[in-house]
Amino acid sequence: MIPPRLWQVSIRTTSEGEEAIACLLERTFCQTPSVYRSAKTGEVVVTVYPAGLPAPQRVLRASLQEALGGLREWQLDLGQARLAIKPLPRENWAESWKRHFQPIDIGGRLLLKPGWSRRRPRPGQRVVVLDPGLSFGTGQHPTTLYCLRQLARFRRQGAKQSFLDIGCGSGILAIAAAKLGYSPVEALDNDPAAVRSSRDNIKRNRVRVVLRRADLTRLPLVPRRRYDVICANLICDLLVNQAERIRNLLKPGGKLVTAGILRGEFHEVEKKLRRCNLTLAGSRVDIEWRSGVFTPCCDPVARIPQR
Fold this sequence. Notes:
Blueprint: E1 7-13, H1 18-29, E2 34-37, E3 44-48, H2 57-72, E4 82-87, H3 93-100, E5 104-106, E6 110-113, E7 126-129, H4 142-154, E8 163-166, H5 172-180, E9 185-189, H6 192-205, E10 210-213, E11 227-233, H7 236-241, H8 243-248, E12 250-262, H9 266-275, E13 278-286, E14 289-296
Parallel strand pairs: 6-7, 8-9, 8-11, 9-10, 11-12
Antiparallel strand pairs: 1-3, 1-4, 2-3, 5-6, 12-14, 13-14
């Protein structure tokens, strides 16, 4: 069978413009974009690979350029926002995925890899399989990597530890937690596309995760269950506005891992969480992002070294 003709539609932008442009492409193509970041320059490339264009290329280009102009009116720094639309050779597009997505080793505890990879795990290493283009995230983004490393670090073998992923996207963190032995593992997202993506990945990895579509802002302030470890890979405003709600989900002695926060906004998050009796135990900066681990103030926990 001849493989379908795929197109590559990409926009180069900045960290600030990443979310808005991803939303634009998702709305236009009804497909979750892939996001790549240059470790050297910090430049972001947001890309979709549709099996056809929704309009003639000239019309589509004009429509997207007009939409980018509208985003600039909101004072977003999009950088040059260079738009590229091109067909991919039928015989090469699958190989191009393979060149860009290599297995990721998380502290010897986890191996993240695409389905086509033949790399074998080390003894005792758990494997998470996620293919690009089928999910919201594959572990490439520095904030996702930070969360994965903390999950591996905080897992105590033989102990019963619960985990909650707030804003699960592809489900990668919940799947990794289940593979590491956390139980129960729960994940939630308000985006139906994210829930579908997570469900597919959870099924593929054959793990037990309680997945639900839920709006964080509507969760009860007094929850029925609390968790040993929570990952909240969320934007600054949501973390700040829902800090008390998130704090109430954490057990005494628990760990809250926050990510997806721009360096300039991290102080605002830390200040709000401090008011909720959470203290910063460690953090890491990756390009324009800063992620952190918070613990209840009364916990006699040594500071976690920055790595």
